[in-house]
Design brief:
The protein has helices at residues 8-14, 17-32, 63-78, 114-121, 123-130, 152-162, 178-181, 189-199, 211-221, 227-243, 263-276, 305-309, 331-336, 356-364, 392-403, 421-424, 440-448; strands at 91-95, 135-138, 142-143, 146-147, 168-170, 278-282, 295-298, 342-345, 368-374, 408-413, 429-432, 504-512, 522-530, 536-544, 557-566, 571-578. With 585 residues, the chain is of the alpha/beta class. Among the domains are: 277-448, Rossmann fold, CATH 3.40.50; 502-583, Immunoglobulins (Immunoglobulin-like, Sandwich). It has a 6-stranded mixed sheet with strand order 6-11-10-9-7-8. The protein has a 3-stranded parallel sheet with strand order 1-2-5. The two termini are 46 Å apart.
Length: 585
């Protein structure tokens, strides 16, 4: 009965840190109500490798957006007093570089230069530490040939020394043992334990397995690990428990009277799901749909709660359809609740054709087709893929539907950007749902029928081709094409993009002072106006770029944003302040 919000990538698409704070408070209260005081969240890995099967657990590719959303999550979980029976300890994970494996496969090696590490991968963790997070979980993979669990430089010198983290550093699942049988960085589990503890690990995550403790006793008795290191780890663990109030009342959460899955919490989940939906295309005003239209709903994600929620939902893989509550509609169910003439034909499973011919025949009888493609649910290694292209079965279904000649609204329910280039031009409209949670079917239908004006923006670059994986903040010379021009960066949709059923215009951009001195704060103001016929939200995004720098600069970097709701004809002037650190590297 717990409240299920959009996955973090979907929350990032809201560009709404206040909403992130509010949803995190609800998640914390419901977790603590089960007397669970420690939450292994948020994932502060930066999602810059689209193949990675945990991309949907991140806040996207940009360090600033992820920093703002991640810090809001920590504050929502812990509040101002983590001992309250509605708060939980936050865990910043997976420190650090876990999300950038060269192969794209989970728990595999990453190669990250020092400047890239500091520019892109450390800032989110620095912000989480500053927000007061009580614990950190370590990268299961390795960076530059050194497994995360024995990387003393990153764990002790940087995390503790530079970032000032004074909480608990926890291993990921069995990752000390994996130093032996996966990484081959230690010959025995005893040696792996010694290396990990001396590198900075305080606790081993293997419930009911006491080998970590037993081996530490031996190592201390052999003077291979100093007693002071044990005292340090124990002090940190006990301090976290004290700050959570566990020594006063370990069962305080279940006594707090928190109502799990309350109507108010469900309403907030629906609000979050609605704000996470991104309208990517709307040719000829095919959306909103008319409730009187003859609609065909087809595709593997049309009638799937696991797809709407993805991994870590109710079960590890989130794939047990029978476990989901029956009173939350899928996309198909939510559409059927709004329109009188709806036909449903599955057409295809995720990677298998079912009744493509029947779906195509039904398309010819429809006024509009809602084609729902994307991914099944997955978590960690079972979600590994080698190609971002949609499975052939889905593309064959799409081509058959498009050949019917009726307007097609493509709805994508997915945890990472699967390539849609072969069908994107032919679709009249494209709606990205990501993984919007239990209320996601309702939210998608709300957008399709115009009950909600979409305002989500992409938290990642949506690639056009499987190997065209440049992020928005690439280097200028990475745009070089085969004719030596600069036209090679052609994503399907750019970072920060998202349409609305209304229109907006910008004017009056001012920078003060016009020629700032070195280190001087800079003010930026701009006026945004709703020039359309209905109320809508716009995310005003402020980017900066160096024309010349001692380290080759990115073409642009996000430094501020603000989400505003504007009535038709309404204008608002927004002001931003940039400091020296916003221009530094």
């Amino acid at each position: 009965g717990a409240t299920l919000f959009p996955q973090p990538l979907g929350m990032a698409a809201t560009w709404n840190p206040q909403l992130m704070l509010e949803t995190s408070r609800i998640a914390a209260a419901e977790t603590r109500a089960a007397d669970v005081a420690w939450n292994f969240s948020p994932v502060l890995d930066i999602g810059r490798q689209p193949l990675w099967p945990r991309l949907y657990e991140t806040f996207g590719e940009d360090p600033y957006l992820a920093t703002v959303m991640g810090a809001a999550t920590v504050r929502g979980y812990q509040g101002t007093d983590p001992s309250k029976p509605t708060a939980v300890a936050a865990t910043l994970k997976h420190y650090v570089g876990y999300s950038f494996p060269t192969s794209g496969h989970d728990r595999t090696p990453a190669l990250i230069p020092e400047i890239t590490m500091r520019e892109y991968f450390l800032p989110t963790f620095a912000a989480g530490v500053k927000a007061g997070a009580l614990s950190v979980m370590v990268n299961s993979g390795e960076v530059n040939g050194i497994p995360g669990h024995v990387n003393k430089y990153l764990l002790t010198d940087v995390l503790r020394g530079e970032l000032g983290f004074d909480g608990v550093i926890d291993s990921d699942w069995e990752d000390i043992r994996k130093l032996v049988n996966i990484h081959h960085a230690a010959a025995t589990e005893k040696e792996a334990t010694r290396l990990a503890v001396l590198a900075g690990i305080d606790m081993s995550m293997v419930p009911s397995d006491y080998s970590f403790s037993d081996l530490l006793v031996q190592l201390v008795n052999e003077r291979a690990v100093p007693t002071s290191r044990i005292d340090d780890a124990v002090t940190r663990i006990l301090t976290m428990k004290a700050r959570l109030g566990l020594f006063d009342d370990a069962r305080g959460g279940s006594k707090a009277g928190t109502q799990i899955g309350s109507a108010a919490s469900r309403a907030k989940a629906l609000e979050a799901a609605r704000e996470s939906i991104v309208l990517l295309k709307n040719a000829d005003g095919v959306l909103p749909l008319a409730r009187t239209a003859r609609l065909l709903v087809t595709g593997p994600t049309a009638d799937s709660q696991p797809s709407l929620n993805n991994g870590w939902t109710l079960t590890w893989q989130g794939d047990r359809d029978a476990a989901y509550p029956k009173d939350r509609p899928t996309v198909r169910g939510a559409i059927a609740a709004r329109a009188a003439n709806v036909t449903y034909v599955p057409g295809a499973a995720y990677d298998k054709e079912l009744d493509v011919a029947a779906a195509a025949a039904a398309a010819r009888q429809a006024d509009v087709v809602v084609l729902c493609l994307g991914e099944k649910s997955y978590a960690e290694t079972p979600g590994n893929i080698d190609d971002l292209a949609l499975p052939d079965a889905q593309l064959r279904l799409a081509r058959a539907i498009l050949a019917a000649g009726k307007p097609v609204v493509l709805v994508l329910v997915e945890g990472r950007p699967r390539i849609i280039q072969p069908i994107a031009d032919a679709a009249k409209a494209i709606v990205l749902g990501l993984n919007p949670g239990l209320e996601g079917g309702t939210a998608i239908a709300d957008v399709l029928f115009g009950d909600v004006n979409p305002g989500g923006k992409l938290p990642m670059t949506y690639p056009r081709a499987p190997n065209a994986l440049l992020t928005y903040d690439h280097k200028a010379f990475e745009e070089q094409d085969t004719s030596f021009g600069l036209t090679a960066f052609r994503p399907q949709f750019e970072f920060g993009f998202g349409l609305s059923y209304t229109t907006f215009a910008y004017s009056g951009l001012e920078v003060t002072p016009p020629s700032p001195q070195f280190g001087q704060p800079v003010g930026v103001s701009v006026t945004v106006k709703n020039t359309g016929g209905r109320a809508g939200t716009e995310v005003v995004q402020l980017f900066v770029a160096d024309r010349v720098a001692s380290v080759t600069p990115a073409v642009k970097r996000l430094k501020r944003f603000q989400k505003v709701m504007l009535a038709p004809g309404e204008s608002r002037t927004l002001e931003f302040r940039l400091t020296r650190s916003d221009f530094s590297f």
